[in-house]
């Protein structure tokens, strides 16, 4: 490659275009809790910005005696991101680099921020050699202390320590950090998240006494055959000191014993996510004490099965980014703890730290609360896929030192955490010799953990076969592959001997994900399948204040003027940015439940399957409740012993009347634990008896023509010209029509991975003009007491549509509709739904219903919905999302839509009912929830059928059994104008 030059009069810092690691850093080590003095430097710093390294000032600003223009400087919070504090703008990109792919060169358009902090070091720190630790600096930084360069920082989500002994002094010190947003290392940090430079994790001064503990490496294995443990604690001291270090673990009877040797523990309780047993330990030297928490566990692979402590392990995980809607990747420990407890309450047992190491203290929480962790390196080069991987650093020897440096810092910092079961080389970085090299190093450095990387399908240097978004049929095909010996390729033999993990699946974007149950059924059926990680835990929307009427503004890609961005793709979590659960989290809790239940059709038995890894069910109680006659709610069921991994059939002694009632069997916690209160539901199942379809309650009344262009049928009025109802009692009905379209979901807008090259579902609907149906009145007739209307409805341009028969009857109080839709012609697409729409000229206040709830339900979602009676206000029922889309359908038997002084009652049998303040056209055309108009009316849809939602925003489309193919559909519904419930 021919080297480039820049004009000598406008020099650029050469190291910004260097692929080498930062300079000056101390060797990486574990993040330790120590009694050595420390001084946290978080707080208010000063910052000034320049648009490019070509514009930086060399005015001695790093010196304590520098004469600076106060007008150039402004306060900034550390930890913090500059764009969230008025300095620059966030950029969201999933794959594409927001600058030319010209490695290793960054663009000239490269904001530079000079940070400055005046500090007085504490006497306790000054009494010893000292180290300056940066835990996370997003961008490429150079660090000075009192004008002396200490080093440069590369690896935005990695810890760097710089020696400052002899430079740190009594009195006022000036810490200076020059931060450039882009550098050669930006090519290694193309993760699916916001680009936001800043010092976003803590900065700390650490005293390092002579002879203190420099590093610790805990090896704590568990032998499931005899229940024993083996403990070795390797210790490295500062300055090569020879004074011995000792380790004490009082609970195990180890007191001041030698480090660096194996200690046999005859009996020890193992660490698992269900039983996160930790033993307090101390490493001592004459000058420092380090506190540790040790967990004994062994992770291994045998017969293509992932084992923990000798027992097969199923990962029920989520991918977690660090995100706060106001502070970006600045997430305090209390918020992180609350996140993990919320995961516990929903049966999530594993976290993949996508796509970088989290703040160090997060791993302490994972150890304590009990989570299995795939700890991911701060590495992604995904943007190279758009240039066919040309120039990818993963296979360029110039970048090898950077790859090695990043992996070492990842492993060394977090190597003492029992929660970490696997090291991940990075994410979506292609393939190449550099990845192979760091895989080999990782295995040599830490043979007690597994190595993970999804990007190499041949899995040469990893210990699990990992994929993203493989479809249900493909996952089953992987689970049932022939034995390794049947393959001739050694790489394929190796891959076949590995357990399979879906490191990402079920993209939780908008309305969805669909198909969770089908994946989980496979995980339970096949030992090779070790589970997977939902993409993803939290939405990354950024707070943008509030509207004039107080509605929160949530922003995503493109909202900050980015010219390269990926829009709302960053809003794809089980919980919203403020950690409020979305509907999918309740579904996931049901699917991930550690206990499966089955009721015999005659309610004679309950089958209980214990899917815990190591717990029996003694911490749970079982009860049954009913909505009918019989014993009081909460009648106890005696559970036998059900060890982990076994099942039992439990006799039930329910009264005969239970068969005619809705019976719910619950397993709930006896006492509080795992972040759950006593009584927290762990598993449930229902017996729902056959329900009447719904019928008019009295004799039929005949339709009559009133002579003013209307037909009166009981409480309803019809327009003779259209055949459509225009009134029901005191309610005016508007825009009654057949509809086959829904406002596209994010999944509808995506292209299913199994259908590359085909248009998205939403594009197919648009091409077929499914949202623009036109109706021709064929016939208006009377058939005894029935008012019968026949219409033909279809989109323009096409010769396909539906023949519709509307058969209306009334008992004088209510109005019944029997609707039949018969498709004709050659339909070019599936339907989104099949049913009717109507509009009411007043806003909804709340909806009451008997049916499934409280959350929505589509054919492939809603596993967490149960049968009962529920109430929701307008916005909760509609399920509002950051980007508006189809959502909120409930399956109802009896619902009342309240509109202030009046209400509309809707009855049927499991009818999908959608209620929202806007038409589907408005929903589909609106980019943000806060841009939707204020509620002034109500749009109601009652459907014969709706299509599934799938996960094609990233991954497979709707499974065949959940697609709504054009076919005859029938709808029976009864409408009544009633008074609202007071």
Protein described:
The structure is a single chain. The chain is mainly beta. Among the domains are: 14-207, Jelly Rolls (Sandwich), CATH 2.60.120.260; 593-687, Sandwich (Immunoglobulin-like), CATH 2.60.40; 704-978, Beta-galactosidase, Chain A, domain 5 (Distorted Sandwich). The strands form 13 sheets. Strands 48, 49, 50, 51, 52, 53, 54, 55, 56, 57, 58 and 59 form a 12-stranded antiparallel beta sheet that branches.
Into which percentage range does the β-strand content fall?
A: 35-45%
Write down the overall mean pLDDT: 95
How can the largest sheet be summarized?
A: 12 strands, antiparallel
How far apart lie the N and C ends? 79 Å
Total DSSP helices = 13
Shape descriptor reads: globular
CATH T-level topology of the domain at 704-978: Beta-galactosidase, Chain A, domain 5
Structural class: mainly beta
Share of helix, binned = 10-25%
Would you state the CATH class of the domain at 704-978? Mainly Beta
CATH architecture grouping of the domain at 704-978: Distorted Sandwich
Computed over alpha carbons, the radius of gyration is 32 Å
Number of strands: 59
Which residues form runs of ≥5 with pLDDT under 50?
Answer: 1-11
At a glance:
With about 1000 residues, this protein is mostly beta strands. Helix content is about 10%, strand content about 35%. The radius of gyration is 32 Å and the shape is globular.
Secondary-structure blueprint:
Blueprint: E1 33-34, E2 38-40, E3 43-50, E4 74-78, E5 91-93, E6 112-120, H1 123-126, E7 130-134, E8 137-138, E9 140-145, E10 148-153, E11 160-163, E12 172-180, E13 193-195, E14 198-199, E15 203-207, E16 213-223, E17 228-237, E18 246-249, E19 254-258, E20 263-265, E21 279-285, E22 288-294, E23 299-302, E24 305-308, E25 311-312, E26 315-319, H2 333-345, E27 350-352, H3 360-369, E28 372-376, H4 400-414, E29 420-424, H5 433-445, E30 450-452, E31 465-468, H6 472-479, H7 490-496, E32 500-505, H8 516-525, E33 529-534, E34 542-546, E35 552-555, H9 583-591, E36 595-599, E37 605-610, E38 620-626, E39 635-637, E40 647-651, E41 663-669, E42 681-687, E43 704-705, E44 710-713, E45 716-719, E46 725-728, E47 731-732, E48 734-739, H10 746-749, H11 761-767, E49 774-783, E50 786-794, E51 801-810, E52 815-824, E53 833-840, E54 846-853, E55 866-873, H12 874-878, E56 890-899, E57 902-916, H13 920-925, E58 938-946, E59 969-978
Parallel strand pairs: 26-27, 26-33, 27-28, 28-29, 29-30, 31-32, 32-33
Antiparallel strand pairs: 1-22, 2-15, 3-4, 3-6, 5-13, 6-12, 7-11, 7-15, 8-14, 9-10, 9-12, 16-17, 17-20, 18-19, 18-21, 21-22, 23-24, 24-25, 34-35, 36-37, 37-40, 38-39, 38-41, 41-42, 43-44, 44-45, 45-46, 46-47, 48-53, 49-50, 50-51, 51-52, 52-59, 53-58, 54-55, 54-56, 56-57, 57-58, 57-59
Helix pairs in contact: 2-3, 4-5
């Amino acid at each position: 490659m021919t080297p480039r030059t820049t004009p000598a009069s406008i020099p650029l810092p050469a190291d910004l275009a260097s692929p080498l690691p930062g300079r000056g850093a101390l060797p990486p080590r574990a993040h330790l809790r120590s009694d050595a003095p420390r001084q946290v430097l978080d707080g208010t710093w000063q910052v000034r910005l320049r648009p490019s390294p070509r514009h930086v000032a060399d005015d001695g600003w790093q010196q304590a005696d520098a004469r600076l223009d106060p007008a150039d400087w402004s306060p900034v919070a550390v930890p913090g991101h500059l764009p969230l504090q008025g300095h620059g703008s966030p950029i969201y990109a999933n794959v594409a680099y927001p600058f030319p792919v010209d490695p290793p060169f960054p663009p000239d358009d490269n904001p530079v921020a000079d940070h400055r902090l005046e500090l007085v070091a504490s006497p306790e720190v000054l009494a010893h050699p000292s180290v300056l630790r940066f835990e996370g600096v997003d961008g490429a930084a150079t660090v000075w202390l009192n004008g002396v360069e200490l080093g440069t920082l590369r690896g935005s989500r990695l810890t760097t320590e710089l020696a400052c002994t002899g430079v740190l002094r009594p009195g006022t010190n000036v810490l200076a950090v020059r931060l450039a947003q882009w550098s050669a290392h930006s090519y290694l940090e193309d993760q699916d998240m916001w680009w936001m430079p800043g010092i976003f994790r803590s900065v700390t001064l650490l005293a390092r006494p002579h002879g203190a503990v420099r590093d610790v490496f805990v090896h704590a294995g568990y032998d499931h055959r005899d229940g024993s443990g083996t403990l070795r604690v390797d210790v490295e001291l500062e300055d090569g000191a020879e004074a011995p270090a000792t380790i004490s673990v009082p609970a195990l009877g180890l007191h001041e014993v030698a480090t660096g040797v194996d200690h046999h523990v005859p009996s020890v309780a193992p660490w698992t996510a269900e039983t996160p047993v930790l033993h307090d330990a101390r490493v001592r030297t004459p000058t420092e004490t380090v506190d540790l928490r040790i967990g004994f566990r062994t992770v291994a692979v045998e017969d293509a099965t992932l084992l923990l402590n000798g027992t097969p392990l199923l990962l029920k995980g989520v991918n977690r980014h660090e995100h706060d809607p106001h502070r970006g990747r600045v997430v305090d420990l209390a918020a992180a703890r609350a996140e993990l407890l919320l995961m516990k309450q929903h049966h999530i047992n594993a976290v993949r730290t996508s796509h970088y190491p989290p703040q160090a203290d997060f791993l302490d929480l994972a150890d304590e609360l009990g989570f299995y962790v795939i700890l991911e390196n701060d590495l992604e080069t995904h943007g190279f896929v758009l240039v066919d991987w040309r120039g990818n650093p993963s296979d360029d020897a110039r970048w090898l030192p950077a790859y090695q440096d990043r992996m070492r810092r990842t492993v060394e910092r977090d190597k003492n955490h029992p929660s970490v079961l696997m090291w991940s080389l990075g994410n979506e970085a292609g393939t190449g010799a550099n990845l192979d090299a760091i895989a080999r190093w990782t295995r040599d450095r830490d043979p007690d953990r597994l190595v993970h990387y999804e990007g190499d399908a041949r899995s040469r240097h990893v210990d699990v076969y990992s994929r993203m978004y493989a479809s249900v049929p493909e996952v089953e095909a992987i689970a049932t592959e022939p034995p390794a010996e049947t393959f001739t390729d050694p790489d394929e033999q190796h891959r076949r001997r590995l357990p399979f993990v879906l490191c990402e699946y079920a993209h939780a974007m908008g309305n969805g994900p669909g198909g969770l149950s089908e994946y989980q059924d496979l995980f339970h059926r096949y030992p090779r399948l070790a589970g997977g990680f939902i993409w993803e835990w939290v939405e990354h929307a950024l707070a943008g204040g509030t509207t004039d009427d107080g509605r929160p503004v949530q922003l995503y890609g493109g909202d900050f003027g980015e010219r390269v961005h990926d829009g709302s793709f960053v809003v794809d979590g089980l919980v919203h940015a403020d950690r409020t659960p979305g509907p999918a989290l309740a579904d996931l809790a049901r699917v991930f439940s550690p206990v499966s239940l089955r009721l015999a059709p005659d309610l004679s038995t309950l089958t209980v399957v214990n899917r815990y890894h190591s717990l029996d069910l003694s911490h749970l109680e079982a009860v049954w409740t009913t909505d009918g006659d019989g014993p009081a709610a909460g009648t106890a069921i005696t559970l036998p012993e059900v060890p982990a991994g076994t099942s039992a059939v439990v006799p039930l002694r329910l009264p005969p009347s239970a068969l005619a009632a809705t019976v719910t069997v619950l397993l709930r916690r006896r006492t509080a634990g795992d972040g759950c209160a006593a009584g927290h539901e762990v598993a449930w199942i229902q017996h729902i008896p056959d329900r009447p379809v719904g019928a008019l309650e009295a004799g039929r009344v005949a339709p009559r023509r009133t002579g003013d262009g209307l037909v009166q049928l009981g409480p309803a009025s019809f327009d003779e010209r259209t055949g459509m109802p225009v009134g029901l009692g005191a309610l005016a009905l508007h825009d009654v029509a057949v509809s086959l379209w829904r406002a596209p979901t994010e999944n509808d807008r995506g292209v299913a991975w199994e259908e590359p090259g085909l248009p998205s579902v939403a594009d197919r609907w648009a091409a077929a003009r499914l949202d623009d149906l036109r109706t021709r009145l064929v016939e208006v007739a009377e058939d005894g007491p029935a008012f019968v209307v026949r219409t033909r409805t279809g989109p323009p341009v096409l010769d396909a549509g539906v023949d519709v028969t509307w058969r209306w009857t009334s008992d004088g109080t209510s109005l019944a509709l029997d609707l039949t839709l018969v498709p004709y012609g050659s339909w070019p697409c599936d339907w989104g739904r099949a049913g009717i729409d109507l509009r009411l000229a007043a806003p909804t206040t709340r909806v009451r219903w008997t049916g499934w709830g409280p959350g929505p339900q589509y054919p492939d979602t809603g596993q967490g919905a149960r049968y009962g009676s529920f109430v929701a206000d307008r916005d909760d029922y509609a399920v509002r999302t950051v980007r508006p889309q189809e959502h909120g359908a409930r399956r109802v038997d009896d619902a009342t839509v309240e509109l202030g002084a009046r209400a509309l009652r809707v009855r049927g049998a499991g009818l999908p009912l959608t209620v929202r303040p806007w038409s589907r056209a408005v929903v589909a055309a609106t980019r943000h929830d806060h841009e939707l108009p204020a509620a002034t009316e109500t749009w109601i849809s009652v459907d014969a059928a709706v299509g599934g939602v799938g996960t094609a925003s990233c991954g497979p489309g709707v499974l065949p059994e959940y697609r709504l193919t054009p076919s005859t559909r029938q709808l029976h519904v009864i409408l009544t104008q009633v008074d609202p419930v007071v």
